[in-house]
Amino acid sequence: MIDTKIFNDTKHAFVLKSDKDLKRSLFLFTMMNIPFFVPISTRATNLALDLKLPIDSLVRATIFEQFCGGESQDECMPLVKKMYAENVYSVLDYSVEGKETEEEFDKAANSKIEIIEYASKSKEIPFAVAKPTSLGRFAIWEKVTANDVLSEEEQQEWDSIKFRFEKVCQAAYDNDTKLLIDAEDTWMQDAADNLAEDMMRKFNKEKAIIFNTLQCYRWDRLSYTKAIHERAQRDGFKLGFKTVRGAYMEKENARAKSKGYLTPICEDKEATDVNFNAVMCYCIDNIDQISQFIGTHNEVSTYMALQLMSQKDISLSDDRIWFGQLYGMSDHISFNIGRINSNAIKLLPFGPIKDVIPYLIRRAQENSSVRGQTGRELALLREEKQRRAGQFVKRVE
Known about the structure:
CATH class: Alpha Beta
Number of strands: 8
Number of domains: 1
Order of helices and strands: HHHHHEHEHHEHEHEHHEHEHEHH
CATH topology: TIM Barrel
Shape: globular
Number of helices: 16
Radius of gyration: 21 Å
Helix content: 55-70%
Structural class: alpha/beta
CATH architecture: Alpha-Beta Barrel
């Protein structure tokens, strides 16, 4: 049985945070908890960028150090090693916004391969990550998903996308590094799902190397999972899934309403939770065929997965099940499940400060909009501050 209070230990949750780090985190989450702060600071940051004001030092000392590992892979490594010492792995994510030219897409593919090769040399980094639209224009993915006829030039672009996609997956296979393929908007996702399935069929013969992402705020994902599972059993390949709730709910619902089609999104947060847990448990129930990267900041889902593993006598360190959270958030989950030798892993973004600002803005926006997220982080940080203050008083006495 898993201890029901596993996530209550703030000493282990914040073991890598100095008192200074703790104060910075408290300040940031306090500010993000103020309703008007994130919109105003976002506008101010964008204005400063437009005016080319020197804001790098301010950004680095605040939100960058909270949510990013460094500006380069090498700069991330001291943090990667510190987390690994606490049994928390890392996956490096070059969080720079993509471009729109074929040359830039080729460069992005080569960059992904370099990260894969870098990860393969580090036991602390078992995964790499790739975003489909970093390898080709969104409009092409969208047209292929819609089964629209491509022009000759568009067909060449699509062929190039497929070439880059397979090239990155081949590198993951050659370097024995698991690859997480991100999910994006539903109106381009079928094309990405189909390519990911082709890559799993090719490279996942013996074990899961290629992992596609299941956005479980989509009400169709359980039926999709069962259908692809049947195909995998028939065709003799393993499945890898990164299971998440999803990040584009408002955008998806707005598009469905404006275009007059049934929204692909669950009706509310509760329905999403039920769907996520059903997909997650289905994958665990079929662990011989399906490996899973459980990407969640939800304590209930994490505990449910750990309990199911315990009931099925699945080792907590089984390489087919991972628990992932974003760096800078939910340390009480990551470090406490790492403490019981489960496979905890942090998604660690990196890149030049000015280039990752769009990512950092999204992190701040999502933290301020997700119900209870910022409040929970604040409560845990305050609890740890009080615990340390109590320890200091005891030492003085």
